[in-house]
Amino acid sequence: MKLRFISTALMLTICSFVISCNSGSKGKEEQAVTTNERKVETKEETKPAASQNSQNLPPSERVDLTNKGVGPIKSLELKELDQKLADKGQEIYKNMCTACHKPAKRFIGPAPKGILERRTPEWVMNMILAPEKMLESDPLAKELLKEFNGAPMANQNLSEEDARAVLEYFRTL
Amino acid sequence: MKTKFKLLLTCSVAGLLLAGCGDSKKSNKGALSTNAAEKVYVAPGEYDEYYGFFSGGFSGQLSVYGLPSGRLFKVIPVFSQDPEKAYGYSEETKPMLMTSHGFIPWDDSHHPDISQTKGEVDGRWIFINGNNTPRIARIDLEDFSTAEILEIPNSAGNHSSSYVTENTEYVVAGTRFSVPIPQRDMSIKDYKGNFKGALSFISVDQESGEMDLSFQILMPGFNYDLSHPGRGKSHGWFFFTTYNTEEAHSLLEVNASQNDKDFIAAVNWKKAEEYIKAGKGKKMPAKYAHNKFDNSTHMATHTMKDEVLVLDATELPGLVYLLPTPKSPHGCDVDPSGEYIVGNGKLSANLTVHSFTKMLDAIENKKFDGDAYGLPILKFDDVLAGVVEQPGLGPLHTEFDGKGNAYTTFFISSEVVKWKLGTWEIVDRKPTYYSVGHLMIPGGNSAKPDGKYMVAMNKITKDRYLPVGPDLNHSAQLYDITGDKMELILDFPTIGEPHYAAAIKADKIMHKSRQIYKLDENKHPYVTKNPSEAKVVRKGNEVHINMTMIRSHFTPDNIEGVKVGDKVFFHVTNLEQDFDVPHGLAMLGANTTELLVTPGKTETFVWEPKQVGVWPFYCTDFCSALHQEMQGYIRVSPADSDIELSWSLDDE
């Protein structure tokens, strides 16, 4: 388990180096490529969607309410909203997540607003608790990484309890 | 037949390899013809069996190696500034290097020793001495960082240090040079009878590890070279080698080599505790620094102490006895049982081994041979356990394997000699390359050595590696000592000049190694726990930036309103809570180093902009695929500008 994590980390590091080598040698060209990618995405977004689940939608907007992701959470049933838990989640979110996630606006990563209309609660929990695993094996997470300029979701070492509180907060957004 | 042929082939290949390296390697052939490579090979992704902590010598630091691979894992900054980690440069760590002489950026680190419980190394802390401006440092083996530095007053050339007693009751630090105590203006020529040596006993809090200079024993003006604790039956005693019992003050090379015998001083520290309880200690004014690093505020504090409790050995009977030991003994080593005390007489042809049991008997029956400044000299023949005859030239240090064998280094004849405790017979000798000083067996200074490997630390490297100019890093050599004969299996270069090392089984430490500092436990006065708390505040000409870092941006990353002549404090918090994701920060033109901030920590440096313009800062540690994007700008306006302070990230 640990070894696997290390090897994942190693792989990511190696990937980073490869990318750095490219940007180092190409310089301006690399920047142009990034800009192009963004433009492509914008175009995709403006295309009329055939259906909600169309593969033409950017991964952050796609709806997938069956995928539970990869990680420690296998099943999670949401009950009535627990406001106290949501308040606790908001506090944790403020300290652990806001560096990259604004509640209702795309930032370094996607906004959590309305996330449970697009993802299963298990998927969200696994993304918080085991982002390395998700980026390695979950197809949607892989695509999200691409959509968000290759900025990988950081593992902030939240306990399962804290991640659950953050999920409850997401329900209030 | 086939195997034989293969073996022959291996041998000849090894021989060929060696042939190119000069004559000096001839004696080394045997090692390479065996499976040495297999013995030291740690496959990619696998772990070493031992942590080895090697003194950094004149680098002032402590290096961490894996054994048996000889791979360097880390250099822990201790007594010297380290620009890589901003140690001694950041505002938080500068106080660690304060002394009674002010800020000192360097020292000469010597003898690392791992804390012990019941005579076994336990891996809580490791201690090391600064030799030049006498200090003892404690390194926390949870985060592999220097946690505390205590200056030692009345000491000079803090060499017979920093060895721990069997339950880490004390870390002991003895002076090499005797000096006037207290220091005063006097003629050097009046050394004899007036200079004194101080042996310091530093107590260690068993929970926090915090050190306190408990007491000092004042001794005659000899040089106190090395020391080791008694253990088992001799627990409660501490042994120090002395030289320059001639009390020479000049040309010691000649003048301190006149006496036939110097002494091993046996100090009864339990007796010292009794004397202190009985009120025999005297409080003496002394100025010394006590510096501590706090892992919750992430800051060091520096305080000065002004008093030390002193016991005068010449006035307190039963505290110290002298064991005559031939010719300027260097190493003073105690075997795992605590019975044998080995004096490695540098200029002696033989190794002298004293018996603790005989020593007690000689004390009880007053078998004295005069005294030195009132300290009883025990009769040599009545304390002698045995002599290792003619083992080599220039003995320095001895370690033990826990199987009844001792291993002694010989500097002049460049070899390690293995001999048997009790029979004193020599059973093996192997050359080292070259001029070996210390040697180390994991747990070798404890009741339970782990007699698998022995590392020889050599003073001279010469032709062992590709030449890189007139000076070379010192070379260490790893020997397999599981068989009857020692087998050289690896060479590896070291940092500075390692004076001693200490090793411990990896599984005693690795599982408790810290991975992050928890953000919600960060009590730094300038911590920024989330980006909404980031701010820039002006206080006169001081500008304080509360900044955060995470993969891969700073908050804020655009700052305006800084002026020439300002003193800009970057207080940077790494918001990451994941193992091994540090971020760096470097500011163009700052007259200091980068910061390298580990997850959950806050660190600070000061920048005094001198030129108008827009100046960038960036992350120095490749943190993610977007690391090259992790940057920011600060606008510096003329001193008389009225531009207000403002800051932003993504124009928000």
What labels describe this entry?
heterodimer; A: 173 residues; mainly alpha; Cytochrome Bc1 Complex, Chain D, domain 2; 2 domains; disordered N terminus; B: 652 residues; mainly beta; Methylamine Dehydrogenase, Chain H; Immunoglobulin-like; eleven-stranded mixed β-sheet; six-stranded mixed β-sheet; 46 strands; globular
Quick structural summary:
Chain A has 173 residues and is mainly α. Chain A is 55% helix and 0% strand.
CATH superfamily of the largest domain in chain A: Cytochrome c-like domain
Beta-strand portion of chain B reads 35-45%
CATH-scheme architecture of the largest domain in chain A: Orthogonal Bundle
End-to-end C-alpha gap of chain B: 80 Å
Radius of gyration of chain A: 17 Å
Main sheet summary of chain B: 11 strands, mixed
Report the C-alpha radius of gyration of chain B, rounded.
27 Å
Summarize the largest interface: chains and residue counts. Answer: A-B, 27 and 27 residues
Number of helix segments of chain B?
Answer: 7
